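Researcher: Structure for this, please.
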Amino acid sequence: MKNKTILIGALGIALAYVGLRSAQSNETPHPIEVRPSTVKPFELPEQLNFSGESLPLNMMEVKEKLDREILVNTYWQSNNLLMLKRSSKYFPIIEPILSRNSIPNDFKYLALIESGLQNVVSPAGAAGYWQIMKSTGRENGLEINNEIDERYHIEKSTQVACDYLNEAYERFGNWTLAAASYNMGMAGTARRLAEQGVESYYDLLLNAETARYVYRVAAVKHIHENLEEFGYVYHQDQGYSFPEMDTISVNTKVTDWISWAKAQGITYNTLRVYNPWIQSQQLSNSTNKAYHIWVPSK
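Model: Predicted structure, C-alpha cell format:
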C-alpha cells in the first residue's frame, strides 16, 4: 500500500511537471517579443536650423536643452505617431498658406506642437489648431461668437498665424524670436530683450514654457524629418486624410444645422467634423455673409 502511494505520488509529480512544461511551451512568446526595448540617448546633430537660422550648438546649454526635447519627444511614441498621422491630413492645407505669406515651411511644426493639430482649448482660452486667443483672433478679422468661431477654421486660422508671424519678424528681425513671441507675445518678448540687454533667443532667461518652446519645435522637426534614426517605422499612406470634398456656399440664415445637414445627405456630426468652426445648431447671419461649408462628395 505504501509503495502504491509512492507510485501515485510520483506519477502525480510527473504529470504536473509535464503539464507545467506544456504550459510554459504554449505561453512562451516569440523571440521578437522578449527582445528588450532599445532605450538609448541619441547623437545630437552637428548642425540644426529652424527656418534657416542655425541653433548655436557650440553652447553647452543649447545642446542640453535640445537634447531634452529630442529625448522627451522621441520616447513619447504614441503622441508622435498621432502627430505624424494628422500631419498627413493638415500639412497639405497649411503649407501653401505659409508659402503664399512668405513664412518658412518649418512653422508648420509650430502648429504641431501648439495643438497636436487638434481643435483644443488651452487653460488660458487659446483655441484651435494655432491656439489663438479671442482678442487676437478678432483683431485679425476672425468671427468669434456663440455661433461661429473661426479659430477652428484651418485655413483662416493659419492666415491669422501668418499675419502675426510676419509682423513679429518685422519687429525682431529673425524667425527664432518671431516663434518665441508666438508663445509669450511680442510685447513680452521685446520687454525681456530690453531688460536683459541681449538680442538672441538663446541668450534670454525666460519662463519655463517659452524657454523650451523653440527647442521643442526644432526637436520635433528633426525627429519627423529623420524618423528611422529615432526608431520609427512609418509610411505616408498610414496617415489620415480628408475624403473628396465639395464646398457649399451659405449666405442666408440657417434655422437648424441638423436639418440643413440632412438635406445635404450627411449627419450633423459629419457637418461639425469637417466644419468645426460651426459652434451652434443655428446661424443668424443678419449680414448675409457667405460661409463656405465642406461636405464630403457623394
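Researcher: Any notable elements?
Model: Strands lie at 49-50, 53-54, 245-250, 291-296. The longest helix spans residues 2-27.
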